[in-house]
Amino acid sequence: xxxxxxxxxxxxxxxxxxxxxxxxxxxxxxxxxxxxxxxxxxxxxxxxxxxxxxxxxxxxxxxxxxxxxxxxxxxxxxxxxxxxxxxxxxxxxxxxxxxxxxxxxxxxxxxxxxxxxxxxxxxxxxxxxxxxxxxxxxxxxxxxxxxxxxxxxxxxxxxxxxxxxxxxxxxxxxxxxxxxxxxxxxxxxxxxxxxxxxxxxxxxxxxxxxxxxxxxxxxxxxxxxxxxxxxxxxxxxxxxxxxxxxxxxxxxxxxxxxxxxxxxxxxxxxxxxxxxxxxxxxxxxxxxxxxxxxxxxxxxxxxxxxxxxxxxxxxxxxxxxxxxxxxxxxxxxxxxxxxxxxxxxxxxxxxxxxxxxxxxxxxxxxxxxxxxxxxxxxxxxxxxxxxxxx
Length: 390
Ligand SMILES: Cc1cc2nc3c(=O)[nH]c(=O)nc-3n(C[C@H](O)[C@H](O)[C@H](O)COP(=O)(O)OP(=O)(O)OC[C@H]3O[C@@H](n4cnc5c(N)ncnc54)[C@H](O)[C@@H]3O)c2cc1C
What we know:
Radius of gyration: 21 Å
Order of helices and strands: EHEEHEEEHEEEEHEEEEHEEEHHHHH
Oligomer: single chain
Largest sheet: 8 strands, mixed
Number of strands: 17
Number of domains: 2
CATH class of the largest domain: Alpha Beta
Bound molecules: flavin-adenine dinucleotide
Number of helices: 10
């Protein structure tokens, strides 16, 4: 019998497992496949170091700036060198294994190559998780169950807390890690907005490797392979990539929550849902690694308190949702949703105007960058200026 059973050892599940194990509780961390590389741009702001100071010791190329291009190629360049801490771009295969290992070193028991597919129920209560492995079915009993198995979580739906995603709640992204000599500034990330809801990105990883991808929230533009290939052929990119053949080290496509947290679906009796499985992804930027880790951290703190008082009821777990950090994430995501339609009106005209205004104003520039990197929202003054711009 475990104190906590967690399905999914991505950023949300691994952080949750680490914090609970650190308190001395018995944690089972169930993972489908630790060799899976999550399709992801892998961009993480400096806020990650609060949760994983160990990452500073790894040889990530420090990222000190961002160039944002509007659909009409209006560009906003911003460097935060000597102003604020550096960001990093990670390869999700090694990153996820690094943080998973931290959870294991802290005491969580990892069960790899286990696919969770249902709950174990006794007297109408969920008392654990059933998994499939290559040799049959396994059962993991726990006082608390945490669902952290991402956007395609079956257990989140089987919990009865939420339905399947509506089509308008799903974005999709395709990305690749390419390798070859290039003219990218290794310290700068680039985002290329499009006339429809979505953007492409180039995030340098190191000397010769970079993550290049495209994500969209617009259902009609969901032929993701076509859009991704169109982006790779854009003449504008020739300056960055003077050679013809870049080695494709890996590529993948995956859905992403598009409309923020499913706030009514976060907890129930002895159950919490965290990370992508609960929609912890910032609308517009698609930033989900940091919010997922925050949700994992707070769910862990909530679980520890519940175990201490031996009350794992819905009432005891409600502190997860009412934690100020979770409330702030939910609030900020909510405020961003109406901005998606606004930005992409008339083929992305407002987004282009935002970049123009920011180009000439230091404060607006900060706000734009904070929106993309730190999940913040634009000030009323900036929004008004945007709305009335002629
Ligand atoms: C194309 C794309 C680009 C993105 N780019 C960025 C970016 O640049 N920066 C950023 O911050 N965010 C980005 N995101 C979002 C980010 O990837 C997610 O928000 C983040 O990975 C969520 O973490 P998680 O732990 O909740 O879920 P996941 O990372 O999806 O982890 C879920 C884990 O559960 C496991 N699992 C799944 N099903 C089962 C099962 N049945 N049983 C057991 N284990 C299971 C998986 O193998 C995985 O390890 C991007 C997303 C996409 C799709």
